[in-house]
Amino acid sequence: MDRIPILKLEDVLLVSIQVDMHDQLALTLQDDLTQKIVATRARAVLIDISALEMVDSFMGRMLGNIASMSRILDAQTVVVGMRPAVAITLVELGLSLPGIRTALNVDAGLVLMREVLARPDEPADGK
Amino acid sequence: MNRPASRLPAIVEQHQKEVLTEWLSNQSASGASRAGRIQDAQLRDESQRFLGLFTKAIQEGIEFDTRSAQWAEVRDFLTELSRSRATQGFSPTQVATFVFSLKQALFKRVTETLKSDPAALANALWDATMVLDALGLYTTEVFQQAREQLIARQQEELIELSTPVVQLWDGVLALPLIGTLDSERTQVVMESLLERLVATGSSIAVIDITGVPTVDTLVAQHLLKTVAAAQLMGADCIISGIRPQIAQTIVHLGIDLSSVATKASLADAFALALKRRGLVVGRAATTPGG
């Protein structure tokens, strides 16, 4: 069965979603990611969705859930590379993903993450 | 169709010249040239061409369906005529009258020729009426299509024109909004802004609403949607150009803009954007004698 690979780069976990997400895949990712955060004691999760062309409300909620779970496990989540069409869809669905940090691309995401990790005890939804 | 062959084609061909002369005199009497908008010579030429094509087409038999191949040449001519009249400022009625006015001259000839045979006369008149009505209506249809195309193109241009996304600085975009924001425009604005964000890799967008005449709850909702979508992509938005009356309206309507940075002028917003990018604008050191 398919899985989405989770790469560890220093203290960051990099998840790059390159295939069409279906619900089971999203649930598997949620499982894998939480286990990996605990196992590697990662401080941050970077989710690259630049290849994702379609989202539904379930996917939007999954992203939100993953961010909340990571936060509980003391890891910050940054979602990077969202396409315009996906952003518009999420807004129209009323899912503005509160509490999730976003960046234009992986590069900008890593910079943002370094900034966040450099500030200790930052509230997760602070701008 | 089981009915006696119409005598109309023969009559038209035979009396083409008389019909044309009479038609022209009728047209000039009714002021078809519309106070010199088209020259008499041009009207004469057009009438002659139309009658020629009409005569040619009708020789192939009476066919009421003007969409058929038989009428192709007449149709092309009328299309051209209708379009050119439309741009000259004629009304659809005037264009259609060009065709309808042929009836009077034509009927006169038909009546004279078939005086002795009422059945054939009625038949021929009926054929002439049907065909000319269809052609007249066709000009109206073309006229309307030309107008609709014009309107559609203008509407498109208006949408394109009114949503430019400009780059103020490396990583800073500005979106000067002019005119009322409705759902359709918001969609276009949102899409072009988000696409430019990706293309330029910008992390800050300034939305300037100086040119938006009124802000009601719906417009505010559209604005907030745009801001939320940009934030999802990892870009911050600043709303600028809020006029005093609009600030009052926003508060009276109870619209919550607290999730977005707002500035009174575009200059202030630009300064804030530069600050967030870690850039400083300073006065250049004065050079001696400069």
Q: What are the defining features of this structure?
A:
heterodimer; A: 127 residues; alpha/beta; Transcription Regulator spoIIAA; 4 helices; B: 290 residues; Globin-like; 2 domains; 5 strands; 60% helix
Tell me how many strands of chain B there are. 5
Tell me the number of helical segments of chain B per DSSP (H or I, 4 or more residues long): 11
What structural class is derived from the secondary structure elements of chain A?
alpha/beta
Largest sheet: spatial strand order of chain B: 1-2-3-4-5
Low-confidence stretches of chain A: none
Helix content of chain A: 40-55%
Order of helices and strands of chain B, N to C?
A: HHHHHHHEEHEHEHEH
Task: Explain this structure.
- The complex is a heterodimer of chains A (127) and B (290).
- With 127 residues, chain A is of the alpha/beta class.
- Chain A has one domain: STAS domain (Transcription Regulator spoIIAA, 2-Layer Sandwich), CATH 3.30.750.24.
- In chain A, strand 4, helix 3 and strand 5 form a beta-alpha-beta unit.
- In chain A, helix 1 packs parallel to helix 2.
- Chain B is α/β, with parallel strands linked by helices and 290 residues long.
- Chain B has 2 domains: 149 residues, Orthogonal Bundle (Globin-like), CATH 1.10.490; 111 residues, STAS domain (Transcription Regulator spoIIAA, 2-Layer Sandwich), CATH 3.30.750.24.
- In chain B, strands 1-2-3-4-5 form a 5-stranded mixed beta sheet, sandwiched between helices.
- Chain B is rod-shaped and about 100 Å long.
Write a short abstract of this structure:
Chain A has 127 residues and is α/β, with parallel strands linked by helices.
How is the topology of this model organized?
The complex is a heterodimer of chains A (127) and B (290).
Chain A: E1 6-9, E2 12-16, H1 23-40, E3 44-48, H2 57-72, E4 76-80, H3 84-92, E5 101-103, H4 106-118
Helix pairs in contact in A: 1-2
Chain B: H1 8-14, H2 16-29, H3 40-58, H4 72-87, H5 92-100, H6 102-113, H7 118-161, E1 166-169, E2 172-178, H8 183-200, E3 204-211, H9 217-232, E4 236-240, H10 244-252, E5 261-262, H11 266-276
Parallel strand pairs in B: 2-3, 3-4, 4-5
Antiparallel strand pairs in B: 1-2
